[in-house]
Design goal:
single chain; alpha+beta; Conserved hypothetical protein from pyrococcus furiosus pfu- 392566-001, domain 2; 2 domains; globular
Length: 425
């Protein structure tokens, strides 16, 4: 049974300055240039907590939180609340709206079947975030989860709330409009709690942080007195109904840094795929993929030419993936790309992130990296639907890394959850 609770959020006060100068993208989406930009925006930008530029970043973050709390830059709410979080954005010429809520979600290991993963994780990011948790004893950023709401109980409720004045209304560095409503009314909170109590949740974004929270919880339980209400048994989470019309999943394109497209590999591709040379423009390649979403379609760009690929021999391709996998898993384009095109045809072997393979959100950027010789090949794919994410997760399977890119990312800096010794929910 899923349990969510309101919490006493730590939030910026008016003394901190303009909200637009304080908020930041999630820590794992901040590169050096963006980090520098955030530092220049404000000496109180949230990036200074999630990803300090200084050497001892864990201790720096801990000390900054203490200092900002003592100076009144940050303040802890006196009343527990949940927060309705709405994002309005434009994508490919259309306006979209995604709405969910932020609350404390009780942690469940995956084997308890309440919260499910859908992607594989890596050790490095989990070590980093565990060190940050140990030092700050705070949830600095929310995880992102999906839940079914077929009767639109929460969706209709959020629509009603969105007609009222918001607590926060700010555009972020990506041009996304972010609106926050703070709910403290027990009846409204209970409505949301009851709507999700019997639902199964799937992690959309933040697998590393969720698994880190479980490890941290178990660590704390072994060191101190605790009960089921102890705050570290929960994780600050952003939760969105899977039926939300603004739930957009973008593809993540793959770039091979060292391997070229040879005549031999092109011949092998033609054995499984219908291969055609196409106009090498970002818009044309996106149009081809979009018009073939119901097929296993790919594009490849080598800096001079672009080719479209349409799978014509599914049986042979699926045999390369293995019978132990479900049909849904074997039918994923990212699985076919990794296990058939890369491993069997291109003979890539194991690919190390950044060293051998790059992951890029936009087609134009992927092509530019090839043009700049930062990679030899760009393989372009279609996005996976949120419904597919749910199906794969329920089968206890994990997609290949970087299979999904839920857009836009949640902005950091609106709420923080205290996990300090003695903190209860």
């Amino acid at each position: 049974m899923v349990e969510i609770r309101p919490f006493k959020a730590i939030r910026y006060t008016e003394k901190a300055g303009d909200c637009r100068d304080l908020i930041a993208q999630p820590y794992d989406k901040i590169n050096q240039d963006l980090q520098k930009e955030y530092y220049e925006k404000s000496e109180r930008n949230y990036c200074r907590l999630t990803l300090p530029i200084e050497e001892n970043r864990y201790e720096i973050s801990k000390q900054r939180i203490r200092q900002w709390m003592s100076e009144g830059i940050l303040r802890k709410d006196e009343t527990p609340a949940i927060f309705v979080y709405r994002q309005e954005f434009r994508l490919f010429g259309k306006t979209h709206t995604r709405t969910g809520f932020i609350a404390a979600l009780r942690l469940h290991p995956y084997e308890e079947n309440e919260v499910l993963p859908h992607e594989t994780t890596h050790k490095g990011p989990k070590i980093d975030r565990l060190n940050m948790l140990r030092s700050t004893q705070k949830n600095l950023e929310a995880g992102f989860l999906l839940y079914p709401d077929p009767d639109k109980i929460t969706t209709d409720f959020f629509t009603k709330i969105a007609r009222t004045n918001s607590l926060i209304d700010a555009k972020d560095s990506s041009g996304v409009r972010n609106l926050i409503w703070r709910l403290t009314n027990p009846k409204e909170i209970e409505l949301v709690q009851k709507a999700v109590v019997d639902k199964q949740f799937v992690i959309a974004d933040g697998h590393h942080r969720y698994e880190t929270a479980i490890a941290y919880r178990d660590e704390r339980r072994g060191k101190e007195e605790w009960d089921e209400n102890s705050a570290f048994n929960f994780r600050m989470s952003y939760m969105v109904p899977i039926q939300d019309e603004g739930l957009i999943v973008l593809p993540t394109h793959r770039l091979l840094r060292k391997i070229r497209l040879t005549d031999a590999s092109l011949r092998k591709l033609k054995g499984l795929f219908t291969v055609s040379e196409v106009d090498a423009s970002a818009e044309n390649l996106r149009s081809f993929l979009s018009s073939h979403r119901k097929k296993h379609a790919f594009c490849v760009y080598d800096g001079k030419k672009a080719y479209s690929l349409l799978l014509k021999d599914e049986k042979t391709a699926f045999r390369s993936i293995g019978a132990a996998r479900s049909e849904e898993y074997r039918s994923l384009d990212v699985t076919i790309l990794r296990d058939v095109i890369f491993k069997v045809i291109m003979k890539t072997g194991e690919l190390k992130i950044n060293e051998d393979i790059l992951y890029v959100r936009w087609i134009k950027n992927a092509m530019e990296k090839v043009d700049k010789e930062e990679a030899k090949l760009a393989f372009l794919v279609n996005p996976i639907t949120s419904g597919t994410v749910l199906k794969i997760a329920r089968k206890k399977e994990r997609m290949p890394e970087k299979s999904t890119d839920f857009y836009p990312k949640m902005v950091s800096g609106f709420t923080m959850m205290d996990l300090s010794l003695g903190e209860h929910l």
